[in-house]
């Protein structure tokens, strides 16, 4: 026997060490969860050189004990990062992940199912498809629906553009954009998520192909402006193929008028995509679902499970009413891949090839807490959002957005009235920085149609009414510290 065959595998550590490793990890995870609320939401500052020096200690020349490395990594993550799991993280749409999701990630990593081919992981594929069908049903999309789990909303939106191009321009699939007479253009609101620009770049459409339609006073797409832009494009020989409605814009939570958009899409024979990355989760609440009215008319939809559904990152969901166009967009066959069993090999129906089981963490959340659990959560969060709006108003902050979603954008009225847009941005940014620096809450500045504001979003299921009150106190202190320009 060759000598290397007598050596044990260095990766095969055996059951006792596995137990120890998992216990160590669980202890660290619990310690983080139990302690995070007592520390600052974000580091006051960080020094990348220091972080690189810390990680650079691992030059991989000598092995370390797993326990020591894990503890060290947990310390680094604690010290140098914004804690989206903190109950007073009122930030971007990053959730505190639910525990079923954390457990699901462990199970997924350990079983490591390969979802490229259906026959490799039929149970895993069916788990994902079951969740996607349930979501489609709650959104009112007719079956059959094609769907896939994605890394996030950006990949789901990329899928939408590919499918819209493939549906609209039969020559696109084989001969590409160059074969299309005229420049294809798409429309999304000026407040939409700007992944559309990257997607236009990636697909070869070019960034100029994205028409950012002006918004009204509520930051919703202005349909008259859309009609004007569309008419001008058609007159100029452009080829409109896609309308995007955003249900819950990232900046201010605006809900574009979907029925009007659907009417335009029908009139112009364009694909309608609804980007409900954050707010799509309200579909689980009978009370709040009417906010999404019109979404059932979409040709495709994006919902992120790693936002309001509180699944750990990354978990996006893409749904489409056009299974044929989806299959046409991602078709391929190779000799080395197992043959398609039921016509639903994920690698021939989505962007990714090798793919992890993304949907288990989402399935577990739904299976354990039920649709009712999610309904309660989104209703509770919207109530906290209303409380936040009231509290902020009582403290003299003026709200500038009017969404029913728990995303409140406020300005100091004196600053907003007296300072130039650039100065107002600098002032509101300074207030947000001051809040973050004090460590008790995390908020960010935002521009809505160019107007500077503080963006306050309920994103953690750990957030309570007392946290909302504490946030407004912190904002008041920050305002005093920064000072109102006389
Ligand atoms: C977050 C977001 C996206 C991008 O999703 P990722 O999960 O970050 O890739 C797209 N659209 C909207 C409206 C979003 O809020």
From TrEMBL:
GO biological process terms held by the UniProt record: carboxylic acid metabolic process
PROSITE patterns from the UniProt entry: DDC_GAD_HDC_YDC (PS00392)
Superkingdom of origin organism: Bacteria
Protein's recorded name: Pyridoxal-dependent decarboxylase
PTM annotation (N6-(pyridoxal phosphate)lysine): residues: 307
Entry's family note: Belongs to the group II decarboxylase family.
A single Gene Ontology CC term: cytoplasm
InterPro entries membership: PyrdxlP-dep_de-COase, PyrdxlP-dep_Trfase, PyrdxlP-dep_Trfase_major, PyrdxlP-dep_Trfase_small, Pyridoxal-P_BS
Organism: Streptomyces buecherae
Lineage, top ranks: Bacteria, Bacillati, Actinomycetota, Actinomycetes, Kitasatosporales
Keyword RNA-binding listed: no
